[in-house]
Design brief:
α4 links the parallel β2 and β3. The chain has a single domain, classed as TIM Barrel (Alpha-Beta Barrel). It is built from eleven helices and nine strands. The chain is of the alpha/beta class. α3 runs parallel beside α4 and α9 runs parallel beside α10.
Amino acid sequence: MATSPISVQLYTVREALAHDVPGTLRRLADLGLTQVEPFDLTARAAALAPALAEAGLSAPTAHARVVGEDLDAVFAAATALGTGTVIDPRVATDRWHTAGSIASIADDLNAAAAVAARHGVRVGYHNHAQEVEVVLDGRTALEVLADHLDEAVVLEVDAYWAAVGGQDPVALLRRLGTRVVALHLKDGPGTPEVLDQVALGSGGQPLREVVEAAPHALRVVELDDCRGDRFAAVADSLTWLRAQGLA
């Protein structure tokens, strides 16, 4: 199986990042990481750019809202950071309940992708549970969205939240196919309680099968929260991925 570089979503270490950007990035680089995934890109790009360079890290993907935002500002921030894929992390829950409203989300993402292309950037979308809890004619809302997306728009599938939403994440990934360019990897019991999330390999998620279902996707370690130290959980997650030959 082909392996892929590993990244970490900086939201995992958000408190440390708020206190000390350079120091936090150095700690992640010291774990052997070469890539990270920023969040709230537009507000954070100026502080992150020099600190990433100092730590020897890149940010190929980043989270930033694109639906309803000042797109030129978003994609200019991405360009300044060297980020090639800007991923919208969430569209409001009330827009996922009908085929028509889902198609309108796709219209928004497609329009954003056209602007992104002028900056040399592409657009993606990241799921939570809401996009898979809604099922229309036997297909999840996320799959319905994919039907309406331009080829230029990609997906980052959060396999854990797919499980929370009642879907088999492995089967979902297989159905979505090559549009999936990144994975959020989490472990735990697959419940909405984020404090129950744990280091990869310590919970009940089928992580190897998830990775094998999208072998060329960027693997992004993330904990929304946990009951222990999140830096330690990231370190343990990387150790597990390497021991399994998945990094």
